[in-house]
Amino acid sequence: MKPFLKYHGPAVLWALFVLYICAADLSSVDKSPLFFEGFDKLTHCGLFFTMTVLLCFGIIRQQKPHGFTFIKAVVVLAASIFFGALIEVLQAEIFTWRTADWNDLFCDVLGSCMAVFAVMLTVWAIGYEKK
């Protein structure tokens, strides 16, 4: 467990933060003039982008030599999508003060896809530069 947390500790902490934010009662935030209509969707996208990048970073650091294959990208994407779906199910069944929304899950998936694309592009660019 210790080697896992050595590399994936930041991702686990961020996932717990995402779970806390998605479970919190934020009904009064919708009425605040500081936030615009799509702020919730943008937040979901950003939270999952960050979580997926941290997860990818942990996987890259864990490998010797450092690398990120397509298979690993699919596994990370599947784990992120599962986590997003789990949050929506929890909001529907347990956190009844929150509402489950398919659009939130779509934004979770979109943020995760953007993160995997960015990581794969960065890893490819670094490998290309070394040649």
UniProtKB/TrEMBL annotation:
The chain crosses the membrane at residues 12-29, 41-60, 67-89, 109-128. Keywords: Membrane, Transmembrane, Transmembrane helix. Coiled coil: none annotated. It comes from the Bacteria. PANTHER family: DOMAIN PROTEIN, PUTATIVE (AFU_ORTHOLOGUE AFUA_3G10980)-RELATED. This is VanZ family protein. It comes from Mucilaginibacter oryzae.
